[in-house]
Design brief:
Strand content: 15-25%
Distance between the termini: 21 Å
Largest sheet: 3 strands, antiparallel
Structural class: alpha+beta
Strand order of the largest sheet: 1-2-3
Order of helices and strands: EEEHHH
Number of strands: 3
Amino acid sequence: MFLHRSWTRRGIYEATFAPDDGGGWRIVGAVVERDPGRYGNTDDECDRVMLELALGTIVLGESAPEPGERLTELVRRASGSDVSAGAIRLSALGLRSDP
């Protein structure tokens, strides 16, 4: 699966999946863009959580509270401020509407 930034159309994440023992799928590999001219984040943990959050909410339509809370924690720590969870989620995922 390839995930691209909507406003730049640049590929940021690439995830590879394999079947799991329960009949579902699991991520077995992931690559993140690290060219600072194309993508400014360098925090592997933040990118791991962002990939999990994007797949859970956008692709699978889940509420994904755990990755959302973890992303909020990581952004607050990196910024040194108490940014609201809603602002962080909106910034990361944009506006979502039901089909």
